[in-house]
Write a structure and sequence with these properties.
- Helix content is about 65%, strand content about 5%.
- It is mainly alpha-helical.
- The protein folds into two domains: about 80 residues, Winged helix-like DNA-binding domain superfamily/Winged helix DNA-binding domain (Arc Repressor Mutant, subunit A, Orthogonal Bundle); about 90 residues.
- A three-stranded antiparallel sheet has the order 1-3-2.
- Strand 2 and strand 3 form a beta hairpin.
Length: about 190
């Protein structure tokens, strides 16, 4: 997926400013699986306008600074629909914690356990934030947009829950290995 397609999706819903895209959409709805910062969003919006996938118009305001409103074009709708219809390869998974764990034989076990426990807390906080998102259960969704949002959220729940379970298993395995090593050293 590219940031441009996510932006086109939001513009397909309605014309937006870069500020609205960042604060109302990327920070509140897709942040857990596709984060973007303000600079990336504005650069991508400029590129979409260059490519003819979006247009921009200055909206004059008397009580605030003027704002630039972006609208998807017909060509942008075609591009979004093309991309939405295409089969996508699974993403390459990068996780710095796994690199830390892979090379953790260079540090003491207690330190690695502390790192894993800290990661667990962060994942639990993220899971709690996901659970706070107000989208009805799959069986109670009233339209397809709600259903798609809920299904996305369900994967977020399951992914975080699985990661937390794996962290618990990893912590217990390291503790068990440490106990085993200590028993062997006493012999």
């Amino acid at each position: 997926m590219s940031l441009s397609h996510a932006i086109l999706g939001f513009l397909r819903q309605q014309p937006q400013t870069g500020y609205t895209l960042k604060n109302e959409h990327f920070d509140k709805s897709v942040a857990y699986f596709w984060p973007a910062d303000q600079t990336q969003i504005y650069k991508t919006l400029d590129k979409l306008v260059e490519q003819g996938f979006a247009t921009s118009e200055i909206e004059f305001q008397s009580d605030r600074p003027n704002r630039k409103v972006y609208t998807i074009t017909k060509q942008g709708k075609v591009e979004l629909e093309r991309w939405l219809s295409e089969a996508i390869e699974p993403p390459m998974y990068r996780d710095p914690l796994l690199v830390q764990l892979f090379f953790s034989d260079f540090i003491d076990r207690e330190t690695m356990i502390a790192v894993l426990m800290s990661a667990k807390v962060k994942h639990e906080e993220c899971l709690a934030a996901l659970k706070a998102i107000d989208i009805p259960a799959v069986s109670k969704c009233s339209d397809y947009e709600q259903l798609a949002g809920r299904l996305t959220l369900e994967l977020g729940f399951k992914s975080k829950q699985a990661y937390i379970e794996w962290l618990d298993e990893a912590i217990e395995a390291i503790k068990a290995m440490e106990k085993k090593s200590k028993r062997a050293a006493k012999r």
